[in-house]
Amino acid sequence: MSQTENPADIAALSYEQAREQLMGVVNQLEAGSSSLEDSLALWERGEALAKRCEEWLEGAKARLDAARAASAPE
Questions:
Q1: What DSSP designation does 74 have?
Q2: CA nearest 23: which of 55, 8, 5, 1?
Q3: Which of 2, 3, 5, 62 has its CA 20 to 30 Å from the CA of residue 26?
């Protein structure tokens, strides 16, 4: 995982990829061995990855809601 990936790279990630990278970011931050500058970059990337995961989950919920509405008796 590169810390220099841009937001377009994050937007292309699947839920599983974003979640895996987010867990890696969290592990690096918890280790506490990064410089302040690197920690800030990791934090920002983590925020972007968390947002991507949330987008995927919201999309999945919308699809489930639509499927339920379509199959509901009238």
A1: -
A2: 1
A3: 62
- Locate tokens 């800030």: which residue? 40
- Give the sign of the dihedral formed by CA 41, CA 16, CA 27, CA 33: negative
Q: How far apart are CA 37 and CA 50, in angstroms?
A: 20
Residue spans of the domains in the chain: they are 7-71
Alpha helices in the chain (DSSP H): 7-11, 15-31, 36-71
